[in-house]
Amino acid sequence: MRTENFDFTLPEKLIAQYPCDPRDHSRMMVVDRLTQTIECTHFFNLPRYMSDEDTLVINNSKVIPARLIGTKSSGGTIEILLLSRHNGIAASQESWEVLLRPAKRVKIGTEVTFSDMSTARVLDRLSDKKWLIHFTTPAGFNRFLDTCGRAPLPPYIKRRKQSERSLDDIIRYQTTYASVPGSVAAPTAGLHFSGSVLDKIKAQHTDIVTITLHVGYGTFLPITHDVIEEHTMEKEHFEVSRKAADALNRAKSLTAVGTTATRVLESLGHADGGIQPQTGHTQLYIYPGYRFKRVDRLLTNFHLPRSSLFLLVCAFAGRELMMKAYKRAIKEEFRFYSYGDCMLII
After folding, report:
1. What is the C-alpha separation between 314 and 321, in angstroms, rounded?
2. 10 Å Cβ neighbour count for 126?
3. Residue-wise pLDDT tens digits, 181-227
């Protein structure tokens, strides 16, 4: 299939730059696959669409403040995005695979200084985009991130490098139930949940199951290949506890909160077999033609054209219905992407 068949034009004004306040007042589009109908409401009405036969599956991964702004010895400003801890050297050293911007004049040995006097040194170039950096942080790496780290917002959310780090973004680019640090991008479908909405869902005896998938930055990037089958997903770490596995095995109908929860559930083996507690990595790439084994309903944000996330929702609901829904969302000026509104596909 051609990637161009999953393209659409989005007015820039619809790309949300800031989250809805309060978070559960985001708009929500409800798409019914059986009737092929579309309804528009608000997220705080989500409990109306849940019952005691539903199980809501959420991703509790916590976003780390993975975006860093430093100064090279030449005086130039450089942006560092942490991707993953590097396992190839001694455990006592805090080294990370990172993206750098701008990277044109970076070379092995380049030194970077941060506002708390921590430093970083470029050790190696791992690929066209990835670099290996070693950090020296006198107060400890976690304290360094708490002091200097910024929310790793995707590039379509504009923030000035020279501005002070935003504590609002650090708080709001995070689900209310995040508890396991490890993501460098938010599981954005969960950003809409407030304590009030979760309490209402629990009160009507809808089960809520917690799993973990640490979201990588590549999840949100557009597909660059002309043919979608040529795209490869990057590995992402997930965990399913014994408690979660038992609850999933009892579930009658699974509603996945986000594409991250969806990819974990669909990576857990054939639906005829019981789910076992497990820790591992998934590279599952879901695009039209994929047959879903576990997920019955999906809550998700509005995604980038030509992205693996948009392909996933097209696989779940059908390309024609999704194109119809996105066309209406644009016409009615829904807010798009990470800080935007959401869609419930039933």
Report:
1. 8
2. 14
3. 999 999 999 999 999 999 999 999 999 999 999 999 877 778 999 99
Burial class for 101, CB neighbours closer than 10 Å (0-12, 13-18, 19+)? middle
Q: Which of 141, 151, 143, 164 is nearest to 94 (CA)?
A: 141
Write b or e for each residue in 134-168: b if 16 or more Cβ atoms lie within 10 A of its Cβ, otherwise e: bbebeeeeeebbeebbbbbbbebbeeeeeeebeee
Domain 3-63+173-345 in CATH 3.40.1780.10? The answer is: yes
How many Cβ atoms are within 10 Å of 198's Cβ, its own excluded? 19
| Sequence spans of domains, the chain | 3-63+173-345, 67-149
To the question of domain 67-149 being in CATH 2.30.330.10, the answer is no
Q: Report the alpha-carbon distance of residue 225 to residue 55 in Å, rounded.
A: 36
Structure-token match 């009405």, residue found:
45
Residue pLDDT, tens place only, 40-92: 999 999 999 999 999 999 999 999 999 999 999 889 999 999 998 886 554 44
Please name the residue that has the structure tokens 């849940």: 50
Whether the predicted model's global pTM rises above the 0.90 cut: yes
Per the CB < 8 A criterion, the answer to whether 96 and 82 are in contact is yes
